[in-house]
Design a protein that fits this description.
Blueprint: H1 3-19, H2 21-45, H3 50-82, H4 85-90, H5 96-125, H6 134-155, H7 165-168, H8 170-180, H9 192-198, H10 202-214, H11 220-248
């Protein structure tokens, strides 16, 4: 997988993405609407509650990133698989890693830019504080988005045809939003074992990394210690996704 080929595919996928009205309405407009609207509503209902506002922002951000990464790439890849576009791309001489890596790179880039937009809007319009460690905040968004994209690609072998992709990814979106706190502190209403299981989701790890970036009294040693477990979580999910893609990813639809 060469850097040049990866850049070419990423640029190609970006052009297709911004011409896709369905992708723009679900991945972009829904991302911005939920990402800005829910924390803004919380700020109006509970003014001055900074901890609640930060938790709401972090949880919703992790939740909407599922829409723009896992959901979007699963729908896109299955559609291109069924249209035989993936099979045609392989005949151009591009490596498999470049083809899939370009799609992942495009959505990670789009998601990071959208996350920056909603965060900037909230910093300007609400009492949401700027993260103490902006680098860790950005790193959590980029790494989390990349892992979710890989998991979305790994999920596609389970999707029999493209029309079902959008429906089949919704359970993961709901669980991810619940585990990250995007729906509020609903995990407190669940049994302890359910909360523990939800904590293993990659969105929970991403949300935890972002919360570390917001911690007011953090130090470098403290940040590294607090980020170790979430980072290990994301590394394990990355390995699972790559193994699944290597063994079971399909480049063309099943024959009837």
């Amino acid at each position: 997988m060469s850097v040049r080929d990866l850049a070419v595919v990423t640029r190609f996928d970006a052009r297709l993405f911004w011409r896709d009205r369905a992708a723009l309405s679900t991945s972009v407009l829904l991302f911005l609407g939920l990402g800005i609207g829910l924390p803004l509503l919380m700020d109006k209902l509970r003014p001055g509650s900074l901890d609640l506002l930060v938790d709401q922002h972090v949880g919703v951000l992790a939740m909407v990133l599922v829409i723009s990464t896992f959901n979007q790439i699963a729908v896109t890849v299955t559609a291109r698989r069924d249209q035989l576009l993936l099979k045609r791309l392989r005949t151009t001489g591009l490596g498999d890693g470049s083809i899939l890596g370009g799609e992942v790179g495009n959505l990670v880039l789009q998601s990071t830019l959208l996350a920056a937009v909603i965060s900037g809007v909230l910093y300007a319009t609400t009492s949401l504080p700027v993260p103490r460690d902006l680098l860790l905040f950005a790193l959590a968004v980029v790494l989390g988005s990349a892992v979710l994209c890989l998991l979305g690609v790994a999920f596609t072998p389970l999707v029999p045809r493209a029309e079902l992709a959008a429906v089949m990814v919704m359970p993961f979106f709901m669980l991810a939003g619940l585990g990250s706190g995007g729906f509020g502190p609903m995990t407190q209403l669940l049994p302890d074992w359910a909360g523990t299981l939800l904590g293993f989701l990659p969105t929970s790890a991403m949300a935890e990394l972002i919360r570390v970036a917001y911690a007011a009294d953090g130090t470098l040693a403290g940040d590294l210690s607090a980020a170790a477990v979430p980072a290990l979580n994301l590394a394990v999910w990355t390995a699972i996704a790559l193994l699944t893609i290597t063994r079971w990813f399909r480049w063309e639809p099943r024959r009837p």
